[in-house]
Amino acid sequence: MRKGLLLGLAGLLSLGTGFSAFADQTTYGAAGCGVGSIVFGDQEGYVQLFAATTNIIFFNQTFGITFGTFNCGTSALDSLGARVFIEANREVLAKDIARGTGETITNLSALAGCADESQVGAALQQDFLTIFPDQSVSTEEVSDAIMNTLSDPSLQCQGIG
Question: What is the average pLDDT score of the chain?
């Protein structure tokens, strides 16, 4: 009976850690992010079985990873939101990037969780010819190039990754 219970808990632990693959693993223990990481923290040992069980019972890791809650780091939707914004505002964004400042750069910086919008504007302006090499460049290529610029660690954009 005990052996079956231990095997069951070990299986639950392995399921719990599988959901945390994309989160910042320095803020919680082996059970991964979720309510269990908030309740039990990063304590080592068997307590992580309880953390994993808590995560599985409340099925919160998927929600936490998606929306950046429950100790799971930044939202997986932040990057998507920035891409949607870029696609919806391509023409105005091109003008603001050429100037290195503007409302769309302010909004994009906020969506991407960047520390300093003026640095973002300067970096985007510097990369203008890479982002918009010609008028026939696709919106997807523009979005990829902007996201590449925003991924520069010096810009400290938290929602890009």
Answer: 75
